[in-house]
Amino acid sequence: MTRKESKSKKASDLRKRAEKKVPKSTEGIGDMSANEDQKLIHEFQDQQVLRLQESIAERESAEEELRRSEKWYRSVFENAWVGIFQSIPEGRFIRVNPAVAKMYGYDSPDEMISTITDVAKQHYVDPLKRDLFKNILDEQGHVEDFQFEIFRKDGSKILISVNARTVYDDKGGILYYEGTQTDITEHKILEDMIRERERRYRHLVENSGDIVYTTDLRGILTYFNPAAERVTGYTISQLFGKHFHFVVRKDYHEQLDKFYDKQLLEKTPTSYYEFPIVTKDGKEKWLGQQVQLIFEQEDVVGFQATARDITDRLKAEEEQHRREILSAIVETAGMVCHELNQPLQVISGHAEMLSVNLGKEHPENGRVNIMEEQIARIAGITKKLMKITKRETRPYVEEIKIIDLDKSAS
Amino acid sequence: MEKKILVVDDEEVIRNMFQEFLSKNGYEIRLAESAEKALDILKTESFMVMFLDLKLPGISGMELCKKIRKDNDVGIIYAFTGYTDLFGLIDCRRAGFDDFFTKPVKLELLLQAAQEAFAKLERWNIDEYDIT
């Protein structure tokens, strides 16, 4: 039983006891003896005292309850991290909690209340905001998330958000404004940073030379940047809602589907693939595409891709490859010429000397002439090898191709 | 004028063949298998006609020609090579060669080149100058 309940029970018991002894009417009083009268009077007085005690106990209980309640509210007011204030339309604060004082840079609520006589002039970065604040409160009776900058006592600026209401007197006149205020400077900075970052990312994506797009799981385009229009030649309305196959060269549809089905099945975070597309004007271009899976929690909900036009790069690579092959052919030809011409020189020289030694009329000289003719033929081949400037081939046997020496050396 | 010819080639069989052929035609032949050996010979002997193979181990025939040209602007120097192209021809001329032959070259052609070289030298009367 609480102290209050104990007191209340005690008062109740006294009242019941007195009521049992006090007559309900005055009938029969004259028949009572003087002693009994006196006794009754005392009993009545006792009852009155008990009732008074009971009343006092109840009042004390209520007062204690009120004190507790006040203490609780004061504690909330004093310790709240959010600023709580009451101010009058003229611009003075009549009550602020420590959080407001701290927000404005004062050491205590008392210092703040006594120092500020016109909050708009003394603290508002834009004093007209105070007029706007008052106008809203006067017209609507309340305001939510009203944001304005203030100068703190040390001159630094912070951004504040206020929720407030107007408190009226019995006749409808404005008594004061009361509400809460929060320093949202850091929140605002963070918000601005996020917004700026989003703006930069959007700018990057929108101005990227690479195609950036997303599809759903079916492969239907759900977003693409302007580069997609530039590279494919199709407009937004022509591309939006289409399957990404729409621009892919038909003979690549199946292998692309297989590739991305595998990525989806194995949940491979990133993949790279090169494939040809056909632009609106019928030209063929090659894209090198990096694809990431889009997850929502653990489920894949789509694909996001970055695709680059690699047509020129592939052409350059092809040209480079062609040059390397040609270079290899020329180098090989050089080696063959050198290695072949050395012994050929020896054979040629000795055949020539043999011919001279035998004399033109010698019956064997004909053989020497044949040897010299064949040497000349081989020398002709090596001379052509030296002149190779391009790679031209001709069929040899079945699938095998060989260098077409005449065409390559021309 | 002494009809001496310096032949530089890294293949012995070719060196010997040139020597045999040119000797039979009245020329005195000195042989070297490398540029380094040729430079050694040139320290003690003077040649106004030379045949240099371009592909030599160590110092190349091209470099050898440039080195010879530092001391000998008049001599006639021929290059012969197993492989060359237009750029090879240009490089030869820049290095100081008077002409070049691509193997297999007819020995008659080499003989003709040697004869022309000595004819030129005689026409220039180089014997009257102390440059040999």
Q: Topology, please?
A:
The complex is a heterodimer of chains A (410) and B (132).
Chain A: H1 3-21, H2 34-79, E1 83-87, E2 93-96, H3 98-104, H4 109-115, H5 119-123, H6 128-140, E3 142-151, E4 157-168, E5 174-183, H7 185-207, E6 211-216, E7 221-224, H8 226-232, H9 236-239, H10 253-266, E8 270-278, E9 284-296, E10 299-309, H11 311-358, H12 365-386, E11 393-395, E12 401-403, H13 405-408
Antiparallel strand pairs in A: 1-2, 1-5, 3-4, 4-5, 6-7, 6-10, 8-9, 9-10, 11-12
Helix pairs in contact in A: 1-2, 11-12
Chain B: E1 4-8, H1 12-24, E2 28-32, H2 35-44, E3 49-53, H3 61-71, E4 76-81, H4 86-95, E5 99-102, H5 107-123
Parallel strand pairs in B: 1-2, 1-3, 3-4, 4-5
Helix pairs in contact in B: 2-3
Which characteristics define this entry?
heterodimer, A: 410 residues, alpha+beta, Beta-Lactamase, 4 domains, five-stranded antiparallel beta sheet, 13 helices, 53% helix, B: 132 residues, alpha/beta, Rossmann fold, five-stranded parallel beta sheet, 5 helices, 46% helix
Radius of gyration of chain B: 14 Å
The backbone outline of chain A, from C-alpha atoms, is rod-shaped
CATH architecture annotation of chain B: 3-Layer(aba) Sandwich
Determine the CATH topology of chain B.
Rossmann fold
How many strands in all of chain B?
Answer: 5
Secondary-structure-derived class of chain B: alpha/beta
Portion of residues within helices of chain B: 40-55%
According to DSSP, the number of beta strands of chain A is: 12
The CATH homologous superfamily of chain B corresponds to Response regulator
Q: What is the CATH class name of chain B? A: Alpha Beta
Greatest chain-chain contact: A-B, 23 and 20 residues
Mean residue pLDDT of chain A: 89
Proper CATH architecture of the largest domain in chain A: 2-Layer Sandwich
Q: State the order of secondary-structure elements of chain A, H for helix, E for strand.
A: HHEEHHHHEEEHEEHHHEEEHHEEH
The number of helical runs of chain B is 5
